[in-house]
Amino acid sequence: MKFYISVDMEGITGLADYTHVDSSRHNYERGRILMTDEANYVVTEAFQQGCTEVLVNDSHSKMNNLLIERLHPEATVNVGDVKPFSMVQGLDSSFSGAAFVGYHARASMKGAMSHSMIFGVRHMYINDMAIGEMGFNALVAGFYGVPVLLVAGDDQAALEAEKLIPNVTTAIVKKTISRSAVQSLTPAKAGELLREKTKEALANRENVKPLVPPSNPVLRIEFANYGQAEWAALMPGTEIEEGTTIVKFQAKDILEAYRAMLVMTELAMQTSFC
């Protein structure tokens, strides 16, 4: 059985604000260690439960955060930027299930460091469905028939996961006080929880269905200001909805929508004055 693990950083145990997740800040190196250890708890338990292959995808920022030398020796790791499918690079129909570790709530929602890809995004939609990184990644997994079995992060990420994916297992390693403050488990206790929840998620896999994406989806991204929308709308096939900062793109499938989202958000970050 092959198992896929996408590891973000904002939802990792004890990480409360940007100083833990920004490579230029003083807490980042501590954050990398905690992120790697947290991923490793899930990897180790997946092998313990009979998985024969585990692929870990570093899914935060420039995607070069995990300390590979600390991971289970039998794991394989996707590391670095640019990846055509970013947070779900390498995920395909050969996997029996996926875990999202270190995940956070979507933009404009309550939750520690909540956002969707970039801080200039207010909301993202597939058709009428509001989604964040978690939802978009789950839809890509669903395209390949892969169920998301486990979501680990803060309490708000868990709530989002439970609304999206019936019967998903969640591991809450910290509770939101504000967007930059949390009440957290210690790393040791979080490790125990993650191993327990990984075991539970794999045992429950027959009860979780893939999140099936719609055919020919319409991607809509609402940006924080019009300049970001203008940049995003430079991508061919997009248009700004009149009177809004929403940029729309008609996609042939969820994979095209995902790559369009990556391009639009990268373009939007070129805005120099907000």
From TrEMBL:
Keyword Zinc: yes
Amino-acid positions noted as binding Zn(2+) 1 in the UniProt annotation, renumbered to this chain: 8, 10
Keyword set, alphabetical order: Metal-binding, Zinc
Pfam families, sorted: Peptidase_M55 (PF04951)
InterPro entries with a match to the protein in the record: DppA_N (IPR027476), Peptidase_M55 (IPR007035), Peptidase_M55_sf (IPR036177)
Residues that bind Zn(2+) 2: 8, 60, 104, 133
GO MF, any single term: metal ion binding
Name of the protein described by the UniProt record: M55 family metallopeptidase
